[in-house]
Amino acid sequence: MIRELYDIEREVPGPFPGTEEVQKLRHRLRQERSRPLTGKIYDWLFAQQGLPRSEFGKLVHYILERWEGLKVFLDDPLVPLDNNAAERALRGPVLGRKNHYGSRSQRGTLVAAILYSLCETAKLHGLDPRTYLIVATKAAIKTRGAITMPEDVLQRAIS
């Protein structure tokens, strides 16, 4: 049944979140098809008679406790079906953090954290991180480090 939810989402064209028209289509599909399907999933979970302390019983209990939060996507077309994009965005810094366990200075670790943050910000805005860093560095040099609005740097990196 969960795969069916993803199948419904795949019927929406283009990248997420899409234009206003695409968001309206996503919302309509979620109301017409995903909502009844989530009701079936809930009924199935509620009917399960797994032992409360078994792994399966714990899993069902965990899901039912969080049910309201799990169905938020039904009412807001800007909420994705899952958080895979957020998980992917965190992967780079987590791997980097593991690589920096051997850093010899706190300053080096701080610099790495700042660079990861800047690169991930660039990616979230659909920009090439290398270009973004070059533009940001040139802007900082030009203004002697007095950049206070990241939007300025984003606009320069886009153009």
Structural account:
With 159 residues, the protein is mainly α. It has 2 domains: 2-74, no CATH class; 84-158, no CATH class. 69% of the residues lie in helices and 0% in strands. It is built from 8 helices and no strands. It has helices at 2-10, 20-47, 55-65, 67-70, 84-99, 106-124, 129-142, 150-158. 6% of the residues are buried.
Helical fraction equals 55-70%
Mean pLDDT over the full residue set: 83
The N- and C-terminal alpha carbons lie at a distance of 44 Å
Q: Let me know the largest β-sheet.
A: none
Structural class: mainly alpha
Radius of gyration: 22 Å
Q: Choose one word for the global shape.
A: flat
Helix-strand pattern, N to C? Answer: HHHHHHHH
Low-confidence stretches: none
**Which percent band covers the strand fraction?**
under 5%
- Tally of domains: 2
Total helices: the number is 8
Tally of DSSP β-strands: 0
Secondary structure topology:
Elements: H1 2-10, H2 20-47, H3 55-65, H4 67-70, H5 84-99, H6 106-124, H7 129-142, H8 150-158
Give a brief rundown of this model.
The chain is mostly helical. 69% of the residues lie in helices and 0% in strands. The model has no long low-confidence stretch (mean pLDDT 83).
What are the defining features of this structure?
mainly alpha; 159 residues; 2 domains
